[in-house]
């Protein structure tokens, strides 16, 4: 006999996907290792674990002693494996800690949804997005760190990228993202999204890069 659809389960699953996706979208825009779909799946999976724990308790609590919190507790520790995959060492810098923390948060949001604590889940999502999006801009403003796109054409010769990254590292410039566009056999167009300290003048940075051999100014970077 087929049971009727439990619409509460459907709605809780959809809510978990939606709230997890809100946080994941911010990470996706920032080109982080774990983005939109990963956060949706983590939040939905956590909600399912909590709903499963409650289901097992309702079905078997008269037969044996059960603690519905034991199953959900494993989510908090188990999410560390996924979070660890988002953390990367980049020279002397550690990247991905914020993404790992956001995965842990969406797991907690999913557990809250599965337990029926919807208001807590919504509030946590709001403040998580506020922290990731709004406070990120505030942090950059207070620290004086500036971000900019630098577009250049680079000749296809060995070790050319190494020379560029060495110049950036020497100037304490952090590379946020790199886009490589298809070019001809001799040249490749590369766009670096970089963050540089306030003490560094952007024109000086550009001058250092274009002082390298086999690097030339890209036409669309008009404000250099």
Task: Describe the protein's topology.
Layout: H1 7-29, H2 36-60, H3 68-86, E1 88-90, E2 93-95, H4 97-114, H5 118-143, E3 146-155, H6 160-170, E4 174-181, E5 187-196, H7 202-210, E6 215-217
Antiparallel strand pairs: 1-2, 3-5, 3-6, 4-5
Helix pairs in contact: 1-2, 1-4, 1-5, 2-3, 2-4, 3-4, 4-5
Account of the 3D structure:
With 224 residues, this protein is of the alpha+beta class. It has two domains: 7-142, no CATH class; 146-217, 2-Layer Sandwich (Alpha-Beta Plaits), CATH 3.30.70.260. The protein has seven helices and six strands. The chain has helices at 7-29, 36-60, 68-86, 97-114, 118-143, 160-170, 202-210, and strands at residues 88-90, 93-95, 146-155, 174-181, 187-196, 215-217. Strands 4-5-3-6 form a four-stranded antiparallel sheet, covered by helices on one side. Helix 1 runs antiparallel to helix 4 (97-114). The protein is elongated, with a radius of gyration of 24 Å.
Sum up the structure in keywords.
4-stranded antiparallel sheet, alpha+beta, 58% helix, 2 domains, two-stranded antiparallel ribbon, 6 strands, 17% strand, Alpha-Beta Plaits, 224 residues, elongated
């Amino acid at each position: 006999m087929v049971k009727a659809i439990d619409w509460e389960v459907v709605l809780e699953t959809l809510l978990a996907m939606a709230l997890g996706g809100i946080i994941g979208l911010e990470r996706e825009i920032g080109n982080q290792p774990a983005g939109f779909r990963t956060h949706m799946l983590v939040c939905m999976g956590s909600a399912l674990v909590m709903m499963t724990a409650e289901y097992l308790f309702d079905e078997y609590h008269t037969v044996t002693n059960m603690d519905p919190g034991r199953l959900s507790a494993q989510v908090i520790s188990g999410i560390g494996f996924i979070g660890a995959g988002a953390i990367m060492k980049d020279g002397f810098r550690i990247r991905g800690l914020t993404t790992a923390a956001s995965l842990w948060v969406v797991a907690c949001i999913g557990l809250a949804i599965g337990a029926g604590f919807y208001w807590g889940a919504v509030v946590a999502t709001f403040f998580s997005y506020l922290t990731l999006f709004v406070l990120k801009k505030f942090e950059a403003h207070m620290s004086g760190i500036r971000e900019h796109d630098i577009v250049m054409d680079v000749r296809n010769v060995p070790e050319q990228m190494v020379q560029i990254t060495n110049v950036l590292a020497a100037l304490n410039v952090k590379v946020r993202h790199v886009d490589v566009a298809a070019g001809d056999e001799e040249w490749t167009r590369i766009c670096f999204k970089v963050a540089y300290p306030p003490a560094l003048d952007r024109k000086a940075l550009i001058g250092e890069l274009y002082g390298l051999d086999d690097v030339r100014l890209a036409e669309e970077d008009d404000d250099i």
